[in-house]
Amino acid sequence: MPKLTLSFKGHVIDVFHLEKEETRVGRDEGCDIRIDSLAIAPQQALIRQIDDENHELTALDSAFPVLVNHDKIETTPLSHGDVIQIGKHTLSFSEDVMELGTDLSTDLRQREDESSQSNDNDLPASGILQIMNGENFGRIIPLKRNMTRIGHVGGDCAMVSKRDDGFFLSFLEGAHPPIVNRHAIGDESYRLNEGDIIEVGGTKMQFHA
Fold this sequence. Notes:
The structure is a single chain. The chain is mainly beta. The chain is built from 1 helix and 21 strands. The strands form 4 sheets. The chain has a 6-stranded antiparallel β-sheet, with no helix packed on it. Mean pLDDT is 81; it is low at 97-125.
């Protein structure tokens, strides 16, 4: 199900699933996504479900511009990873999961036999990392494998391991170990908690179970 992640200055405030045909964003109490700020119009934007797979964003008040990926819009279709800016807040539009390219790679490092690996690929995602800065801001890394590698090839890299008792972050290689909530984890494995802020190779991510 598509969703919008509301952030203010890089900090996630809330996540809204787009379950209705129309979702209104604004300062009014009757808005589906209400943002209590004078920089937001009483009704600033409307998100309409066009069909099962597509959504459209419309700006409702010309005095309060709506930007999508830094461009001012009137009406535009939404794509996975789009970042909507209204006032000083951002709304990141995303589907359930998204595989990223080589800038921030995620790959499996399994040491199990082929049969075990096949079964692992069928596991549903029960945790995600959401990117909080850079050109991939708002995008999602699904943690649906036993091991997910994050970071830049040849630079700082870390591994998120999926275990029976949760998700654990470990340092793999590079000059700097991962940072969780502003503290380097060193060579120890760290059990991730809901809302933890992770930094690997200059990329900031937030963990959600």
